[in-house]
Amino acid sequence: MHYQRFPKGLFALSVVYLITGASIAASMVFSLLLFLSLEQGILMKLMFGGLALVFEVGKFYIWYEMGERISRRDPVGALKALCFYGVLAGLSIAGSVGGINAATNTLLKGDEAKAALVQSYNDKIVGLEREIQINEQAAQAYIDMARIANGMTPMLQRNQALRARQDELRRERDQLAIASQSSLMGLMTGLADGLGWPLARVQFGVVAALSILLDFFAAFFISLLGDELRFRQTLKAGSSEVDRVPAGGSNEPGVGPVPAESDAPASSSTARPDYYHELVSRLRSGELRCAKGAVARGLEKPLHEMEEVFHWLVQDGIVYRKPNRHFALSQPEPGPSALS
């Protein structure tokens, strides 16, 4: 059973366009963050911002153009496009690294401020604990002097108030620590602890990985859309051909046209390519799928040449076109073949 490709549906195309647009927009934003930080003037910001957008749009079009050149079997042109894409992708990844790094630095500064606030709560709690210990020492002195009634009672009341204040400070500190948790910073802190690396190195590694993933994620979906557009163009070109079925033939599914008389194509057999008999044998043996793209890839021939080859195959009764415009092998019939 051979796989037969069909155009992607509306839902699949909508998802692909949505993901592609979102990834390209994110890459553009991070590149803008890098280029806009180069200058403070409004005019230069506009110029650098436009330059960033030109680089981003050009980068993804170059990736699409590379796919076009590969499909045209132009390795030199594809290599040039790949080199150009590498330069622009390097600039884009640098911009993404700068933008994401700026965002993580903001998170780090916010966490540092919250950590300082938590430390201030700890210092207050420790100060209250020292005061409680001093009061307890004073109360012990009043016990030694047998002055419990007029000296120790106020000390005990003071310690109760201080311990209540400590409990209140601990609750505020714990609530602040819970509210200040950041998923990204938690990830980087965990990696730093697990790998034994400094937090700055882990931060750079995470930011670089996210930037590269974003860029190649967008490039993958650009190539996916390019391949889908080329497939639809090929399918449209094949559907626009005029069917040339011999008299007495049939286009019913599963029933091939009646082969022409042995002397009918004899005068035009010289127009067939030298690999025509080999192609027919490989089609009937199932080695090649009955589709223009599959035959072109199997024989390493250009796709436009398959238009004429399939014209001869249809005329000789080897294949026929189904109602859905796809080709299929005709059922072999006894008797002399059109190729004999």
Give a verbal description of the structure:
This protein has 340 residues and is mainly alpha-helical. It folds into 3 domains: 10-106 and 199-236, no CATH class; 110-180; 265-329, Arc Repressor Mutant, subunit A. Helix content is 71%, strand content 2%. It is built from 9 helices and 2 strands, in the order αααααααααββ. Strands 1-2 form a two-stranded antiparallel sheet. Strand 1 (319-321) and strand 2 (327-329) form a beta hairpin. Helix 1 (10-36) crosses helix 3 (75-144) and helix 2 (42-71) crosses helix 6. The protein is elongated and about 125 Å long.
Short summary:
By secondary structure, this protein is mainly α. It has helices at residues 10-36, 42-71, 75-144, 148-179, 183-195, 199-239, 276-284, 292-299, 303-315, and strands spanning 319-321, 327-329.
SSE arrangement:
Elements: H1 10-36, H2 42-71, H3 75-144, H4 148-179, H5 183-195, H6 199-239, H7 276-284, H8 292-299, H9 303-315, E1 319-321, E2 327-329
Antiparallel strand pairs: 1-2
Helix pairs in contact: 1-2, 1-3, 1-6, 2-3, 2-6, 3-4, 3-6, 5-6, 8-9
